[in-house]
Specification:
Chain lengths: 415, 161
């Protein structure tokens, strides 16, 4: 059966001349995924590109059998965090010829691309013998740490319905000789960051994220304690009190946020709202609804602004997931209106609302659901950028160099 | 890729050569910026280090790359001058080229020097823009036109005794 027509970046760019082709291409790569030809797969075994076997445990499905490359780089320097294993029926293809990587959509040449060079610390071990790339993964300019590799929302089936995090833990464990404990030793974190910082100009931000852990005297106390330990371990590497950093975490109360601010060098905080509409939030994020509900997650972001300052608090939305069926919005316009309402609300309070492209990963409850068309994302990112610009907000932490996942913050590059 | 005459290659290697990049941004405002680190890469592209993503030049180059607008580059030293038309081709955020420019910046300015990106520019046209070359070209095109008639090489001065 022929695939229904799905307008690609060139067609959508013609309809939305304010949105550059490269941003649309990035979002379409996120939507449709990527595969490597045998020549490209051979080329990324080069030490310049070889990221080792992928330890990123985000719904790889059939994990690549050879060593995987790091994030894809487009010519404007933005990175695309897609794994080289097709998630959809019609992924883009990267080939390698004449000494360069080239991107194709079926037989159509799209552009020259590249992959993020492997950082120098990959392949090294901490003094406890742990491979450093299992402690921190590298984006082009950002060091990503995951101090706790389990999400308790998965217990009892309360995980977010789009989430495929931790579904590949068994495979990942096998890749690192079973050395994959839930909890990462802060000394391993300290040593890995120290090693990573030996490479000139490789990193300009540290990002921490973990699975949710609501346990503790107050909800999320365990999680907060662990993040503080990790941030303090990282902080020992710096002469200054604060270092460019972001914590993507659960929604903490004011006292917990104050601790994070006062006891560590953290500079920005991001509790993800994921879905704005109250009913859809409860349906799509049952763990967040249970601990302690949408209002709590919103309040946490707002209270964090008093502590970290306007523009230093972020919240992500998994854009498109609000159209998941049977309970989601029935029209794109309703979904867009919901995002714009959320963005305006947060912007008014100094919180930067960012969109991510929803991927119905294998291993997630929403696998097999239909994604919105690319044009939805073109309209979305323009609207979000305009709202944030009106409030003088710019995503300096989650920009193209550090995160690369957000079309709306990409647009801000020329503002 | 354009051909680079040896004279231009030599100029690009000289530390005291003026190297300026002219752009037009989203709002249509022209902008000129000097970038002394501009140099020729082995494949014929040009590259330079940019310190900030927030500089007007960075923004304009992103705009030019996204929307396929040309930029102009001026290279000059003494009487020598070259005019290049180019496209921003790649914004490098990590890897060997970034490291090379960063280490050069640190060698020159000290260990706290920093850069954000390296921009790679693809040159489409190269033109000798020196005053002498322009004069000769103009003279060949329209001899006897335009020049002031009182120039020493033209005018016969009456000898007044
Ligand atoms: S909080 Fe939700 S998205 Fe994050 S790891 Fe847990 S289930 Fe997945």
């Amino acid at each position: 059966m022929p695939r229904p027509h799905d307008p690609g970046p060139r067609e959508v760019a013609a309809l939305h001349p304010q949105v550059p082709f490269l941003i649309l291409l990035k979002m379409d790569l996120q939507r449709r995924g990527l595969q490597l030809t045998p020549a490209a797969l051979d080329a990324v075994q080069d030490p310049l590109y070889d990221y080792g076997r992928s330890y990123v445990i985000y719904g790889q499905g059939e994990a690549v059998r050879k060593n995987a490359p790091g994030p894809l780089l487009l010519r404007d320097g933005t990175s695309v965090l897609v794994l080289a294993g097709a998630q959809t029926a019609d992924p883009y293809t990267v080939d390698f010829h004449d000494g360069r990587f080239v991107l194709y959509d079926a037989a159509e040449f799209i552009d020259e691309v590249d992959f993020t060079p492997r950082p120098d610390y990959y392949g090294k071990r901490t003094s406890r013998g742990v491979p450093m790339e299992t402690i921190a993964t590298a984006r082009p300019q950002r060091l990503d740490l995951n101090p706790y590799r389990f999400c308790h929302f998965w217990e009892g089936g309360n995980q977010c319905r789009y989430c495929a995090y931790f579904t590949d833990v068994t495979a990942t464990k096998a890749l690192v000789d079973g050395k994959f404990p839930r909890e990462v030793d802060p000394e391993d974190i300290y040593e890995t960051v120290a090693e990573a910082l030996k490479e000139p100009g490789r990193f300009s931000q540290v990002m921490l994220t973990s699975g949710a852990d609501p346990r503790g005297e107050r909800t999320f106390d365990f999680e907060v304690g662990r993040q503080i330990e990790a941030l303090q371990a990282i902080g020992r590497n710096f002469k200054t009190r604060r270092f460019a950093s972001e914590l993507i975490g659960c929604a903490y109360d004011k006292q917990q946020l104050q601790r994070l601010h006062d006891e560590t060098g953290l500079t920005s905080y991001c509790p993800d709202i994921e879905v704005w509409d109250p009913k859809l939030f409860d349906w799509i994020c049952p763990g967040k609804a249970k601990f302690n509900g949408r209002d709590w997650w919103i309040r946490s972001a707002l209270e964090a602004v008093d502590i970290f300052g306007p523009g230093n608090v972020y919240t992500n939305a998994v854009a498109g997931v609000e159209l998941a069926q049977p309970h989601g919005f029935k029209t794109l316009d309703e979904a867009l209106a919901s995002h714009f309402e959320a963005c305006e609300f947060f912007a008014k309070h100094g919180v930067v609302y960012l969109s991510l492209v929803w991927i119905p990963w294998r291993g997630s409850q929403f696998h097999g659901q239909k994604q919105p068309p690319l044009e939805f994302y073109a309209r979305l990112i323009q609207g979000l950028r305009d709202i944030k610009r009106a409030y003088g907000l710019k995503a300096v932490n989650d920009d193209y160099r550090h995160c690369g996942n957000h079309g709306d913050s990409d647009l801000e590059r020329i503002d | 890729m354009s051909d680079f005459p040896e004279e231009l290659r030599a100029l690009l290697r000289q530390p005291d050569t003026a190297k300026v990049i002219a752009t037009v941004g989203r709002e249509g405002a022209p902008h000129v910026a000097a970038r002394p680190t501009l140099q020729l890469l082995a494949n014929g592209d040009l590259a330079f280090a940019e310190v900030l993503d927030s500089s007007q030049l960075s923004k304009d180059l992103v705009y030019a790359l996204w929307f396929e607008r040309p930029i102009a580059i001026g290279i000059s030293r003494g009487e020598a001058a070259w005019q290049l038309t180019a496209r921003p081709w790649r914004c490098v955020v990590a890897g060997p080229l970034l490291k090379q420019f960063l280490l050069a910046a640190r060698a020159a300015q000290g260990p706290d020097a920093d850069i954000a990106t390296v921009w790679v520019l693809r040159v489409d046209a190269v033109r000798d823009d020196s005053p002498e070359t322009q004069r000769l070209a103009d003279a060949a095109l329209r001899p006897n036109a335009g020049a002031h008639l009182d120039r020493e090489s033209l005018v016969r001065r009456a000898v007044v005794s």
